[in-house]
Amino acid sequence: MSKRRGLLGAIVVRASQMISIPLNNDSILDVGGGAVKNEIRNNLARISLRWMIRECFRLDTGILFHRDTFKMIGLEHTTLWPVVKDRPAPVTSFAGDPPPLTRPLMTMGVNGTFDDVNDFTTEEEEDLADILSPINDMMKISKAWWILECIPQKIRFQKDDDSWVQKLS
Question: Do residues 98 and 79 lie in contact, with contact meaning Cβ atoms separated by under 8 Å?
C-alpha cells in the first residue's frame, strides 16, 4: 500500500485504498459563518465544505470520505465518483416544502456506518437552503472575541526573494 505524508503529517492514500474521514460541521467551525449547533440542518459553512470536498475528488487527491455522511452535508456521492459531474444550474425556489430547520444528530450504527439521512433533496436545493441560512457571526454573538482581534500577533512570512520577514500585525 503506497502512502505519502501530506500537510500536518496526515497520511494520504490513493483513491483505490481505504481511509475514513468522518464529516461533521465541527471540523470547519467558523468557515463562512458556520459556527452553529450540530442539530442545525443548514448553514453557510456547508457551501464551502461541499466545494472543498468536490475539489478533493476533482483533483484526485486520494482522500476517501465516509460515503454515509455525504447527504448530511448536502452532497450526493454519485455526483463525485467515479467521475465528478458538472453542477446543474442553481435553483431559486424549492420543489416542495423547504427543509426542516433542525435534524437529529447522526449516530454511528452497525459496522461503522451512519444512520441514513432521510431529508436530503438535491444538492441544488441544499445550496439554496444554506444560502438562505442566517449569518452566524461569532464577533457579534460573543463580544469577547474582539479582545483577541485587538491583541497584536507576531507573524512571519516569506517574500518573493525567499527572505523571511517578521513583524507585528
Answer: no
